[in-house]
């Protein structure tokens, strides 16, 4: 994948306990709160919960991208911790990237592997589909998941392929004019269903790794 430029320094002053990023100030709070409580706490300090639009922010800056219209559902309890900006569910941590700049499936997998030995997400239940849909609400693209085909369909993290959620008529292994290969990678639509697609298409993606 192409390298991502380091943002320029900024002289914007921030209150004590905040960090400066471009022309904004961010504060990471580890105390557990509901979405509503967290937003109220931010408002009291003259701010709001962080919203992320830039591709560099979403890939490199550990802040949460929350929406007042659709906060994520409460995840199942785990046995460890997640990096800021990653969402816990069960014993795993999840991160969705869906900025304006998309990535091919191999590029997306490489980015996931750079963080705590992560992988493109494998999905094993309807509840997990809905959880990922809830944290993927900046919908510039569909998102790559960790399902790919060699001789047969398999998850990149080597977990078993039991649950599937193919869209009607998929996978169809289509080969369109101009394609450089068959549809050997899988994207998730906004409604949570899956489609096989050419791996060089530019998409968002979902990573996951074990809690630490």
From TrEMBL:
Keyword terms of this UniProt record: Disulfide bond
Domain of life: Eukaryota
Residue ranges of domain C-type lectin in the record: 89-208
PROSITE patterns: C_TYPE_LECTIN_1, C_TYPE_LECTIN_2
Statement: the UniProt record of this protein carries the keyword Cell membrane: no
Keyword Disulfide bond recorded: yes
Protein known as: C-type lectin domain-containing protein
């Amino acid at each position: 994948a192409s390298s991502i430029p380091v943002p320029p320094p900024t002289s914007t002053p921030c209150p004590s306990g905040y960090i400066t990023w471009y022309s904004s100030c961010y504060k990471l709070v580890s105390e557990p709160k509901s979405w509503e409580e967290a937003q109220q706490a931010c408002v009291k300090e003259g701010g709001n919960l962080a919203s992320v639009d830039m591709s560099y922010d979403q890939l490199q800056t550990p802040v949460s991208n929350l929406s007042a219209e659709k906060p994520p559902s409460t995840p199942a309890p785990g046995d460890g911790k997640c990096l800021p900006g990653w969402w816990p569910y069960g014993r795993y941590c999840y991160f969705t990237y869906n900025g304006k700049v998309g990535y091919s499936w191999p590029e997306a997998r490489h980015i996931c592997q750079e963080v705590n030995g992560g992988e493109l997400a494998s999905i094993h239940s309807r509840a997990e589909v809905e959880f990922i849909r809830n944290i993927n609400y900046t919908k510039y693209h569909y998102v790559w998941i960790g399902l790919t085909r060699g001789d047969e369909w398999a998850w990149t993290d080597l977990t078993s392929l039991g649950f599937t959620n193919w869209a009607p008529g998929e996978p169809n292994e289509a080969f369109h004019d101009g394609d450089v290969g068959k549809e050997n990678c899988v994207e998730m639509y906004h409604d949570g269903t899956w489609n096989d697609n050419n791996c060089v298409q530019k998409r968002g993606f979902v990573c996951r790794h074990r809690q630490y």
